[in-house]
Design brief:
Number of helices: 6
Bound molecules: guanosine-5'-monophosphate
Helix content: 25-40%
Distance between the termini: 15 Å
Radius of gyration: 17 Å
Oligomer: single chain
Structural class: alpha+beta
Length: 252
């Protein structure tokens, strides 16, 4: 059953955001749409919304327990693709942390795929589809005025804390956290909160039980690279996360 919701506030590539009965809370619906390469590649993938919602809910809860402030309030009633979150103003940055070289880092530099990066590399991108989410330099960040130095250092600290929590948790279920993208927001009270989602759409996850460099991929790269088995991979991530975190909370 679809939870009671108000007007559609925003529709992104993978989620819809609706007003709720409370001004400071919004409902997020995870969609089955898959996009890549700035939406130049599109598909519908049955169960993707449910799997990403269920994985994200559990990872947000784990992060909250470890002291990372997030927007997450709980799954919305018995509906498997909806969650209730605190309303935030999204900071227009894509915050990427890389533990192992992959993706754009390897396309844009001579660093070879699979190279361990220690300490993890923080890359900030300007969140703007029309501009293709460009990588920012420190100087461009300052010029844009998206966030002042104090906020940037809080963003970096939060991203590194997320990494410090997720890497060992995922390693415990035989998943290597290669890299991930976070979006952060500011709540009505002015708090910096982790927002958006944390799922195989936004993280690169490699199965540490598998050697083969394609077979081990359990994330959106299966869709980007036409490797097939996309939902089986997401389902495998869900199964392992659920095994470690069986009962996410419901929003009451
Ligand atoms: P890369 O810069 O290598 O393309 O991406 C680094 C990490 O951030 C990957 O885990 C990738 O999935 C994630 N990422 C970067 N940009 C986006 C984006 O616009 N949407 C999504 N869902 N993930 C992104």
């Amino acid at each position: 059953m679809t939870p009671d919701h108000g007007e559609l506030l925003y529709e992104g590539k993978a989620k819809r955001i609706y007003a709720s009965a409370m001004a400071d809370r919004v409902l997020v619906e995870f969609k089955d749409d898959a996009t890549a390469f700035n939406a130049r590649k599109r598909a519908r993938m049955e169960h993707k919304g449910r799997l990403n919602c269920q994985i994200s809910a559990r990872l947000f809860e784990l992060l909250e327990e470890e002291g990372v402030p997030t927007h997450y309030l709980g799954l919305a009633a018995d509906e498997e693709t909806w969650m209730m979150v605190k309303r935030v103003e999204i900071i227009p940055l894509e915050v990427v942390l890389r533990n192992i070289a992959a993706g754009s880092l390897c396309r844009e530099t001579p660093i070879r795929a699979g190279t361990a990066i220690e300490p993890a590399l923080l890359d900030l991108y300007y969140k703007d589809d029309a501009l293709g989410d460009p990588l920012l330099t420190q100087a461009r960040l300052r010029l844009l005025g998206v966030a002042d130095d104090a906020r940037l250092s809080a963003i970096e600290k939060l991203a590194r804390k997320v990494n410090a929590v997720l890497v060992p948790f995922l390693a415990g279920i035989d998943l290597q956290l290669v890299d991930f993208k976070l979006e952060l927001g500011i709540s009505k009270n002015g708090d910096l909160l982790l927002a958006d989602e944390i799922s195989p759409d936004t993280c690169r996850l490699w199965d540490s039980r598998i050697e083969d460099s394609n077979d081990r991929i359990l994330d959106k790269d299966r869709f980007r690279k036409d490797l097939g088995g996309v939902m089986d991979a997401y389902g495998e991530v869900f199964k392992r996360v659920q095994g470690a975190c069986p009962n996410p909370r419901n929003y009451l």
